[in-house]
Amino acid sequence: MSDLSDTDLYGFCIPEKETVFPHLRGEIPGFGNQIPRFEQWQEHHVLDKSAGGGKGRSYDLAIYNIVKYFQLCMENNPNMIDSLFTPRTCVLHSTEVGNMVRENRRLFLHKGAWHKFKGYAYSQVHKMNSKDAPVGKRQELVAQFGYDVKYAYHVIRLLDEVEQILTEGDIDLQRNREQLKSIRRGEWTQEDILKHFERKERDLETLYTNSKLPHAPDEAQIKQLLLNCLEHHYGNLSDCVVNVDAAADALRRIRAIVEQAGY
């Protein structure tokens, strides 16, 4: 089946400091002419003719501004969460900042993952059940198996992953690989997929209720991780952000000095 599939490559980058902190170049967000800021770059079906021993391989590429990447991960976007938990052996390149993010990847997980993953799974079920004529490579899948097994694969994958999130607060993307391979080989019928989906959805609603994960992300901690990453890359950020706690502490000390002086 690999000859019918593009390989997805995800990553993030840190753009110039003025892109992340536009006030450094005098821009006031929402006022006047706004300078376009890089958020993401995507390109599909990029062919590497030298890959696969000369057989070639097609890639779907996506590179995100680190700020947008953090936001999507904090929202538990399934594609971004997958990229965080990709096995080390599948990581093509990682900087020290990349390692910092991966070391703290469980920080992004919360119970809201269930709603995100369920929504994506419903979308895949809808596409799998669609009566629209398939196009491109999907025509071959439907002709061979009677339905689009690639959509079915994603339905089960999403449910497996969110089950791990809710029960363990972690994801092993390789745990159910044999089950997923069997779906891609057409060993499950479309009816099998739908019955599994209905049963799993009921079970996951219970897991969601009982999960020990926080209901929402810890935005303050995730923001601090983002700032640590940016400081590691740019250097000192004192000209970019105000440390509210430090400022408040400074005001307290000034007030104490003033009061001690009798003013």
TrEMBL record:
Highest taxon above the source species: Bacteria
Alphabetical list of InterPro entries matching this protein: RlaP
Record's protein name: Uncharacterized protein
Organism per entry: Capsulimonas corticalis
